[in-house]
Amino acid sequence: MGLEVELNRIDSLSHAIECASKLGADSKGFGVFRGQANVDWKLEPSLFRRALWSRNEHRMIRDVISAHPQEFKDDRSMLDQLVRLQHYGLPTRLLDVTHNFLVALFFACKDSEDGKSEGDGAVFYIKGPIARQKYYDSDTVSVVANLANLTALRKARIALKRSPSQTVLSTEGKEISVDYDQLAQFVRQEKPYFKDRIKHDDLMSSYLVLPKKNNRRIISQSGAFIICGLGAQYGEEELDEFRLSYFTIPKIKKVELRRDLETIGVSEELLFPEIETLSRAVARRYQRGR
What we know:
The structure is a single chain. This protein has one domain (4-287). Helices cover 39% and strands 18% of the residues. The chain has 14 helices and ten strands. A four-stranded mixed beta sheet has the order 1-10-4-2. It has a four-stranded mixed beta sheet with strand order 3-9-8-5. Helix 5 (101-108) packs across helix 12. The longest helix has 13 residues, at 178-190. The radius of gyration is 20 Å and the shape is globular. The chain starts with a strand and ends with a helix.
């Protein structure tokens, strides 16, 4: 993504709200937030954090869905499946973001499961042109999402424009490479009307996706996703498409900020509305006394 610029250091909830209020709306683009427990962590989808995950993307997806097909029976698109897989913890090409600054702040103050601090946190502010914002049913999003169905070799050949010489006839009678043809076939499984008009630039790009509000966690977190194409995966994406800045959250202020966030309802029970999360929160509440 674009050049990272530090905006401010947030040391109180009132300061956080003041900072958020200064981020003016831009009618020509979008702005979303992401909280990370460590300011030094690279801003990227979990799939790209390990080479073996990235290389075996299509296999990991099939391993999970083949073992639990009933969990995915209502999913109509590859994006739906990626959102569900992300929810269950599988590394995907989706990056969770939120429209709510305070939700991002909560995640920036969240430390590891064993209670160890991750150091200074960060709330990232990601801005992009409106052309990079798509809805869940966008054809472009379907194409990028279905990259997850291709082998690593096919994705690499497309990214590097080294598709093999073998070609097939498209539905419009034009010759296209077998790699693009297989991608189009996957898209047509969810959109039978889809034509073979896949643009290389679309496959290299990343997009903000506004999802369906059919997931309690997405609703409670004011959630959205950035779906990353081959440019982010192979390091060839243009740097000026997204503008990236961040607020640093000092390590020593995390506990205080999380406590203050809980007083205004931004808590783990709210953001993770599943019964397991509520049960753990209730147990902790009674452990330290109500």
